[in-house]
Amino acid sequence: MATELDCRGLACPAPVLQTKEHIEQEHPESLIVLVDNEAARQNVSRFLSTQRFAVSVEEKEGQFRIKGTREGRPQAEQPAVSPDASEKKIMVMVATDRMGVGDDELGRKLLFNFLKTLKEMGPQLWRLVFVNNGVKLTIEGAETLPILQDLAAEGVTILVCGTCLDHFKLLEMKQVGETTNMLDIVTAMQLADSVVNL
Amino acid sequence: MTILDVVSMNRQTEAVFRRYDEKAGACLCCEALFEPLFVVAFRYGLDLNKLVKDLGEVSA
Question: Which of A30, A72, B27, B54 could bond to A2 as cystine, CB 3.0-4.6 Å?
Answer without folding.
Answer: A30
